[in-house]
Amino acid sequence: MDAWAAVAQNLGLDFSYSDDGVPEWAASDPTTCKEVYSGGPASCSSTVADIQDWDDYVTALATNYKGKIRIYELWNEPNGSFTGTTAEMVTLRTHMYEIIRHIDPAAFTLPPSPSTSGVIGSYLDSYFAAGGPTGVDGISFHTYTATPENVVGHVSDIKQIAAKYSLASKPLWNTEGSWGTRRLTSAAQVAAVARFYLRLWSGGVSRFYWYAWDGGT
């Protein structure tokens, strides 16, 4: 990660960090652990067994990368990558949010970013209702849709949730999205990219990360 952060700094780009999983030794439920990459370390979808381990990790992360990590997304697609309870997610996010705010108050924080059609708004609603930190700097989400025009409904749902929790003034960021695994012709791909950006822009989304320029989608 040192190398990635250095590249971002050299190019004058914001470096973004997103959580996803806990290591096997720290997991409260080791049965949720699996290799993400063949031969690599296991990642677990449960919460941690000891919150102090989590606090120590986040403290080290924020201290080592203060001024280098510009954006912290508090979890990647929790509705599909976290098997703990919403209350456990809120505990992890609250600890992380407060530690980052204390160590690096200039960092830009985002809530967990849900994905999958039909659950983005409902997940954010349940998360904030359970006490998820509302002092975040923006609201993030992921969209993989059959057509770019489908993002309009997602954005509308998120705006309603934002207003419900007095977050309507926060910028909306789509931190991951594309046509997913659908096979499109080259011409259709070009058209889809333009339509995604235009639809999100017209809906008031201020930033969009395509996933992924070099990943086959």
Structure, explained:
The protein is of the alpha/beta class and 217 residues long. The chain has a single domain, classed as Glycosidases (TIM Barrel, Alpha-Beta Barrel), CATH 3.20.20. It is 40% helix and 18% strand. The chain has seven helices and nine strands; from the N terminus they run H-E-E-E-E-H-E-H-H-E-H-E-H-E-H-E. The protein has helices at 2-11, 51-64, 78-81, 86-103, 120-129, 151-164, 186-202, and strands at 15-18, 22-23, 33-35, 42-44, 69-73, 108-110, 139-144, 172-178, 205-210. The strands form three sheets. A three-stranded parallel sheet has the order 1-5-6. The longest helix is centred in the middle third of the chain and has 18 residues, at 86-103. The protein starts with a helix and ends in a 7-residue tail after the last strand. The model has no long low-confidence stretch (mean pLDDT 92).
Q: How would the global form be characterised? A: globular
CATH topology: TIM Barrel
Task: Count the beta strands.
Answer: 9
Oligomer: single chain
**CATH H-level superfamily:** Glycosidases
Layout of secondary structure:
Layout: H1 2-11, E1 15-18, E2 22-23, E3 33-35, E4 42-44, H2 51-64, E5 69-73, H3 78-81, H4 86-103, E6 108-110, H5 120-129, E7 139-144, H6 151-164, E8 172-178, H7 186-202, E9 205-210
Parallel strand pairs: 1-5, 5-6, 7-8, 8-9
Antiparallel strand pairs: 2-4, 3-4
Helix pairs in contact: 2-4, 5-6
